[in-house]
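Protein: Exodeoxyribonuclease 7 large subunit
Species: Parvibium lacunae
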Amino acid sequence: MMTQNPSIVAGLPPTVLTVSELNRSVAGLLQRTFPLLTVRGELSNFTRASSGHWYFSLKDAQAQVRAVMFKGRAQWVDWVPRDGERVEIRATVTMYEPRGEFQLSVESMRRAGVGDLYAEFIRLKEKLAAEGLFAPEQKKPLPRYPRRVGVMTSPQAAALRDVLSTLARRAPHLPVVLYPVPVQGAPAASALCSMLKTIQQRAEIDVLLVVRGGGSIEDLWAFNDEDLARQLAASSIPVITGIGHETDFTLADFAASQRAATPTAAAELCCLALREIQQQCTTSQRQLQLSWERQCQQWQQRLDGYQRELGQISRVTERWRWRLQAYQQRLPAALTVPYQRQQFRLQRFQEYWQRVPGPQSQRQALQTLTARWQAAIEAGWQRHQQRLQQQEQALTLLNPQHILRRGYVLVYDDRGRLITTAAAAQGEAHLQLQFADNTLAVRVQQQSAS
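Structure follows.
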């Protein structure tokens, strides 16, 4: 039976209500009709606002209702609610008048068991963990300097815009490859697995970002697929996940090489910022320059030492040359005069014995003595010749010309002065290079500092 407006029945003009008056009347009606009551259901879309208030949905298999728990009530809950948990709440039925939305105002909350999806998530997580899929040693190390980054997400997702804007700001030089897939709904899990196989076959990226915005446990359920988790764990390409908000965890997060709290954080983890790379290059260049300068200084010190040793060898060689010249001048006189003197004495002795008659035995003894004397003189002459040859060989080894045959070069300016340092060659346009076999004249075209 239809109830008519009392004003129409009485013949009076109908009462006209504003939207605010209507919502206020409905809110008062709900509060009068429904006292404080207890409701059981599963948490979904749980959000903690910066103000400290909690906003969530309470649902069962057939329906759901919005709920709010203000900071003054929420502070007495000694645990952190999560999507998928079953709870019992004490609440009043109210209406949020600005939007005309029916909701529950929660006074208290307690656990009532774990939701079906959350229980399945825990079961799969424990199963895969027992198989070692989440072990740290199974994680692929992230490349320090990737050459190309892949992003697997929906082209319409806000997470994609966050990732692209972050990479454009931090690493504008880095190419990005998009692999479009649905990230929500029944076909999402199989699409994600199929795309991941394609990415492995193409092997065109160095690191893969799997990202999606926040949502309820139902919205994120595609990333709790067991096959997807196994493929992520076995991937030859390092994978970074940025799925949902900081409090959202999926099996894909545990199987990936690294988990990021948000899609933006995933983009920051995949590569160094261009500014950081430039700073590292600058630091490495400075260190290389300092190392090169130290090495050049060490080489210069060694060269100075070789030059000092070469100068000492030259002085020793010069002294031996002088001594050899003196020996060459003295040797003829030293050998000839004693030899002549002995020859003269021998002749006088022979003449004396020829004049003195004597037995044949004395004459033979004289001949023997003469032969021995001549042999001694010849042996002494040979010894002097051998010593002279040995001294000539030693002098040859110390001769600068012999050192030049080993690859060294003497450098002279155009006035014939010996140049021993690079600084002494500054400003010289023509130089003379003395090799072991010849001398070359060179023209200096360019001078560079070491």
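Remarks: The first strand starts at residue 37 and ends at 48.
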